[in-house]
């Protein structure tokens, strides 16, 4: 800044020395947006407990949903609840993943985290799950194919594709309509096949792009008391609607993994159902987020290890399935379904704890410093918005994965 210039030979009274005004006190954080310090050795890097709480609750729903899949056939009510949960539980995860991918670019340190946090775990778990299916499940399919994700490893494959495309979605003018258009086109293209689960990648893409477009105030809006109250009748209506549709609508639409023709529906049903499922996912995810605690809770720390719970609980579910545990008559009663639900929630909670994470960190969050060249760039090692899926006990990984 410059004071007014004096003309040569002109006497002016010197202007008094300006003093910088005292800095105004920082505004108090909005309720529910205050962040608790989380990272060790990284002052200033903080986490919002809301997102860790949301990821933990969502991973519980994922595990419960996988167990319900084995016992829901005898109960129309349970199948309705299953369809409601499957409408929003993975979209909620994907929205959070997109939100924390907003600053992803092709910087070497971020690409390194993408490789170690997504690609390597995908290769490891896809291989191990395939061997598990062959030798424990005695499957007739004896192939191990990295290009054909099996069971729950599709999410890592999808996250890799989505995150690589994040810079493109920040560049285009109308990212969400474009993503919806791609999803609609995919839903009427049965020839896509199972390679990299591209049907799911494209049909879930709008949820990821929505997360990319969101800002902190959007999450704050859905956490208001009014939204929390309104979410109760919304869920009731959703359950009632799902109960009505169970015998009338093919439940496979909730998986977003098939084109309309694959489900025996007319071609135009694909784009229509993409819009219906996306609208339902956004509405129910908002209702879900409304009930997620914003404060530190007993399970907040578990939310930092949801990728462990996600990748490991499949072995437990499939082991029980292969052993015939879901065939017992007692499991197919209302009380049995309740017990299965509690056990599934307890098991996935255990798999998110620190002792389990220490044992399996080599596969879920490998460091692999030996595999990369040492970067001397100024930007290496610095992060932006933290992706809350990384382990809290390790060095901050701003763009790790979300389960």
TrEMBL record:
Species, as recorded: Streptomyces carpinensis
* MF (Gene Ontology): acyltransferase activity
Feature: compositional bias, Basic and acidic residues = 32-48
Residues in domain Acyltransferase? Answer: 49-348
Acyltransferase: is it a keyword of this entry?
yes
User: Annotated region Disordered: where?
Assistant: 1-48, 376-403
Pfam families, A to Z: Acyl_transf_3
Give yes or no: UniProt keyword Ribonucleoprotein.
no
Assigned keywords, A-Z? Acyltransferase, Membrane, Transferase, Transmembrane, Transmembrane helix
Membrane-spanning residues: 54-71, 83-102, 114-132, 144-162, 174-192, 226-246, 266-291, 298-317, 329-352
Name used for this protein in its record: Acyltransferase family protein
List the PANTHER family. MEMBRANE-BOUND ACYLTRANSFERASE YKRP-RELATED (PTHR37312)
Q: Where is the composition biased (Polar residues)?
A: 7-20
List the top taxonomic levels of the source. Answer: Bacteria, Bacillati, Actinomycetota, Actinomycetes, Kitasatosporales
């Amino acid at each position: 800044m410059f004071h007014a210039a004096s003309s040569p030979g002109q006497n002016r009274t010197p202007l008094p020395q300006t003093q910088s005004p005292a800095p105004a006190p920082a505004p108090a954080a909005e309720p529910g947006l205050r962040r608790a310090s989380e990272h060790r050795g990284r002052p200033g890097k903080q986490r919002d407990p809301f997102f860790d709480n949301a990821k933990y609750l969502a991973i519980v729903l994922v595990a419960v949903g996988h167990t319900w899949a084995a016992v829901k056939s005898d109960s129309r009510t349970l199948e309705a609840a299953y369809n409601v949960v499957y409408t929003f539980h993975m979209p909620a995860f994907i929205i959070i993943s997109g939100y924390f991918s907003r600053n992803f670019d092709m910087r070497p340190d971020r690409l390194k985290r993408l490789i170690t946090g997504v690609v390597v775990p995908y290769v490891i778990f896809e291989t191990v799950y395939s061997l598990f299916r062959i030798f424990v499940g005695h499957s007739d399919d004896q192939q191990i194919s990295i290009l054909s994700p099996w069971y729950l490893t599709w999410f890592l494959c999808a996250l890799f594709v989505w995150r690589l495309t994040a810079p493109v979605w920040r560049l285009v003018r109308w990212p969400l309509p474009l993503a919806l258009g791609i999803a609609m086109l995919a839903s009427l293209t049965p020839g896509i096949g199972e390679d990299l689960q591209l049907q799911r990648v494209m049909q879930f893409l709008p949820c990821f792009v929505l997360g990319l477009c969101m800002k902190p105030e959007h999450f704050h809006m859905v956490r208001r008391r009014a939204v929390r109250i309104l979410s109760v009748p919304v869920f009731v209506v959703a359950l009632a609607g799902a109960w009505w549709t169970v015998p009338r609508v093919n439940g496979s639409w909730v998986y977003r993994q098939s084109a309309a023709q694959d489900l025996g529906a007319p071609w135009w049903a694909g784009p229509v159902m993409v819009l219906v499922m996306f609208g339902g996912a956004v509405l129910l995810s908002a209702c879900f987020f409304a009930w997620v605690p914003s404060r530190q809770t007993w399970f907040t720390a578990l939310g930092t290890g949801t990728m462990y719970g996600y990748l490991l609980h499949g072995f437990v579910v499939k082991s029980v399935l292969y052993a015939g545990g879901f065939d017992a008559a007692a499991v197919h009663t209302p009380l049995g379904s309740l017990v299965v639900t509690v056990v599934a929630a307890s098991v996935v909670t255990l798999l998110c704890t620190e002792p389990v994470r220490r044992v399996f960190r080599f596969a879920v969050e490998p460091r692999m410093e030996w595999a990369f060249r040492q970067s001397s760039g100024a930007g290496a090692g610095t992060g932006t918005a933290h992706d809350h899926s990384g382990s809290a006990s390790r060095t901050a990984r701003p763009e790790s994965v979300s389960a």
